[in-house]
Amino acid sequence: MKNKIQSIHMVQRGTVVMGSRAKIVLALAITAVLFSCSSGNKPNNETSVPAEIQPTVVANDPVTPTEPEQQPVLEPIQVLGRKQIIEKYSDDVPRKFGERMDGIISGFIPTGKQIALTLDACGGSYDRRITDYLEKKKIRATLFVSGKWIDMHEKELKRLSESSLFQIENHGKSHKPLTSDGRSVYGISGTKDIGEAYDEVMVNSERIERITGRSPEFFRSGTAFYDDISISMLNDLKVSAAGYTISGDGGATYSRSRIINIVKGAKPGDIILMHINHPESDTFDGLVGAIEELLGSGFEFITMSEAVKNR
Predict the structure, then answer these.
(1) Which pLDDT does position 78 carry in this prediction?
(2) Structural contact between residues 287 and 264, judged by C-beta atoms closer than 8 angstroms
(3) Of 251, 206, 205, the residue nearest 225 (C-alpha)
(4) In terms of Cα–Cα distance, which of 112, 115, 102 is closest to 269?
(5) Non-local CB neighbours of 266 within 8 Å, separated by 6+ positions
(6) What is the mean pLDDT of residues 125-140?
(7) What mean pLDDT do residues 229-253 have?
(8) pLDDT reported for residue 51
(9) How many CA atoms lie within 13 A of 41 on its CB side?
(10) How far is it, in rounded angstroms, from Cα 87 to Cα 85?
(11) DSSP bridge partners of 119
């Protein structure tokens, strides 16, 4: 009887012990299930995960790199060199020659009563009265300077380039018509071939840039005459051919009264061509008289760069 009671007690204790273990196993199972369910959610930055249950990162797992945002690449402006220009045009025959043709800037679309005053420095002397007057009146102008003029007035060119009123542009190394076959006008022979035409433009352009720190955007040939092949060459060189609409002083030959009558008749969008290398002429007096009338009529004087923005 005693042994039977002890056996019963052992069975009862075993049942109790087994019940406690079952509870522990059940608790662990519930914890595992809860963790596996919560692992599908995004981690909360404010909740720390115990280190012993953090997932292990395998070193060999593939990682997709983040590509940097691609920026557009600006292509450099391609300008043909002398050899390339000769190869391109040496066999071509010009078909046109003159002051007016496609590719030459002759006038612009104004925004208001605007005029572009351009002054050629062909060679020889310098009528400083003109630029002094323009500075005094704060009138903007574009100065086309030749290599012949620079030879005698390099310091003046540097001074003028430092003024915010004046834009310095290219009038050719030797002040010649820009041609591919040497034809002449007004008794002045043009560049004899396309190689010399290239030099007429680029040698003086590089010289101006060395002195002023700025590369010219425009080229006006001596006499303002071009042939169609030289115009195409200028396009390849990324240089604009500058023409005009009003010859204000007739190559520094007109009288004061004639200059005034011609220039004061300018209309918005006109490009006036005059000269600053003939102090013995009536150009200064005529220019002053015409400008005073134009200012009184409300005209504004702008540079070639400002003018072509409106074309």
Answers:
(1) 76
(2) no
(3) 251
(4) 115
(5) 115, 246, 272, 294, 299
(6) 98
(7) 98
(8) 39
(9) 9
(10) 5
(11) 143, 274
Q: Give residue 73's pLDDT.
A: 59
> Does residue 25 have a pLDDT over 60?
no
- Determine what percent of the chain is predicted with pLDDT higher than 70: 75
Residue-by-residue DSSP string for the chain: -HHHHHHHHHHHHHHHHHHHHHHHHHHHHHHHHHHHHHTTSPPPTTSPPPGGGSPPPPTTS---PPPPPPPPPPPPPP---HHHHHHHHTT-----EES-STTEE-----SSSEEEEEEEE-SS---HHHHHHHHHHT--EEEEE-HHHHHHHHHHHHHHHTSTTEEEEE--SS---B-SS--EETTEE--SSHHHHHHHHHHHHHHHHHHHSS--SEE--GGG-EEHHHHHHHHHTT-EEE--SEESSTTTTS-HHHHHHHHTT--TT-EEEEESS-TTSSHHHHHHHHHHHHHHTT-EEE-HHHHHTT-
> Does 200 score more than 60 pLDDT?
yes
pLDDT of residue 269: 97
**CA-to-CA separations, 200 to 9, 150, 155, 179, in angstroms, rounded:** 123, 14, 22, 10
DSSP states of 165-201: TEEEEE--SS---B-SS--EETTEE--SSHHHHHHHH
Distance CA 168, CA 212 (A): 8
Average pLDDT on 226-242 reads 98
Mean pLDDT of 91-120: 97
For 178, the token pair is: 């820009």
The CB density around residue 194, as the number of other CB atoms within 10 Å, is 27
Please tell me the distance from the alpha carbon of residue 186 to that of residue 122, in angstroms, as a whole number: 14
Average pLDDT over residues 211-235: 98
